[in-house]
């Protein structure tokens, strides 16, 4: 397995793989890899002949008061896991390599980034789209793999690729959960034991929402109210948002009369966690 720090060297190795007729798959990550990431890597290995994992904590998607400086960076453990999983190349640039001077060119997807995480993190998706576009330009993958836990991110990137005619297939992969239901996240390691126990309220609230929809409840406000009751009963949990949106343009739904995304973000102590489910109203 190659560990490469520069864009130039990465392009050399990708060109060599393409010359051998290999299909290129990319799993973009910020490191602190867990089973959710590993599921993406496994699918990439199954579908592509040359697997690239990027490890880059992208500063442009963090707000001024967010956790950029304390974001976990267990690089040796991450590269060891990649090697064990048969990754061909790890692209691990420093910030100066990706942003060598003041960045004044940005990629922004409107409308889909207005609600959910975009409402409370106004420049987040601008940073995400810009760095993903840069990775696509550097690696030129045939397929790229993203987790459904970041459902809004997947939708935004899919639209960016479509609108800009980028020749890459976006593969959305299912959420991987702990046995008790908590969605796997690099930020879970911030939680102390009591906070970890309280974090189960995310999946509990989403599970109740699914039951209500399956039972015929279509009023979004009523579903959100029941979810809020579960979450606010936990002392260390503060709601950022609970939203029910359509599953295409991510616009708010007053009534669930089509496939919908039910998404939430909460703070547990200082840690922000997100989760979601997709629901279909009964026929």
Give structural notes.
It contains 10 helices and 9 strands. It is an alpha/beta fold and 283 residues long. It has 2 domains: 2-173, HUPs (Rossmann fold, 3-Layer(aba) Sandwich); 186-278, Pantoate--beta-alanine Ligase, Chain: A,domain 2 (2-Layer Sandwich). Helix 9 runs antiparallel to helix 10. The longest helix has 16 residues, at 124-139. The radius of gyration is 19 Å and the shape is globular. The mean pLDDT is 97.
Strand content: 15-25%
Q: State the CATH architecture of the largest domain.
A: 3-Layer(aba) Sandwich
| First-to-last CA distance | 50 Å
The helix fraction, in percent, is 25-40%
Q: What name is given to the CATH topology of the largest domain?
A: Rossmann fold
State the major sheet: 6 strands, parallel
Keywords:
Rossmann fold; 3-stranded antiparallel β-sheet; 6-stranded parallel β-sheet; globular; 2 domains; 37% helix; Pantoate--beta-alanine Ligase, Chain: A,domain 2; alpha/beta; single chain; 9 strands; 283 residues
């Amino acid at each position: 397995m190659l560990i490469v720090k520069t864009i130039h060297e990465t392009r050399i190795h990708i060109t060599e793989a393409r010359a051998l007729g290999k299909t290129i798959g990319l799993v973009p990550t910020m490191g602190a890899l867990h089973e959710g990431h590993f599921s993406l890597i496994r699918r990439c290995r199954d579908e592509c002949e040359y697997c690239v994992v990027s490890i880059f904590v992208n500063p442009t998607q963090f707000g001024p008061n967010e956790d950029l400086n304390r974001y976990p960076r267990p690089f040796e453990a991450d590269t060891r896991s990649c090697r064990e999983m048969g990754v061909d190349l790890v692209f691990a640039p420093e910030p100066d390599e990706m942003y060598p001077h003041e960045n004044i060119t940005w990629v922004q997807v409107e409308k889909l980034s207005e609600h959910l995480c975009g409402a409370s993190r106004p420049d987040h998706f601008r940073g995400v789209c810009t760095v993903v576009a840069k990775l696509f330009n550097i690696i030129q993958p045939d397929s790229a793999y993203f987790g459904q836990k970041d459902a809004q991110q997947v939708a935004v990137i899919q639209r960016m690729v479509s609108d800009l005619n980028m020749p890459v297939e976006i593969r959305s992969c299912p959420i991987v959960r702990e046995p008790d239901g908590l969605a796997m996240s690099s930020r879970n390691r911030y939680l102390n034991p009591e906070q970890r126990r309280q974090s189960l309220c995310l999946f509990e609230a989403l599970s109740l929402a699914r039951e209500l929809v399956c039972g015929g409840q279509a009023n979004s406000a009523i579903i959100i109210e029941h979810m809020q009751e579960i979450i606010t009963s936990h002392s260390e949990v503060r709601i950022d948002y609970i939203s029910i949106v359509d599953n295409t343009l991510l616009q708010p739904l007053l009534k669930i009369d089509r496939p919908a995304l039910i998404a939430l973000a909460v703070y547990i102590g200082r840690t922000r966690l997100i989760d979601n489910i997709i629901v279909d109203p009964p026929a």
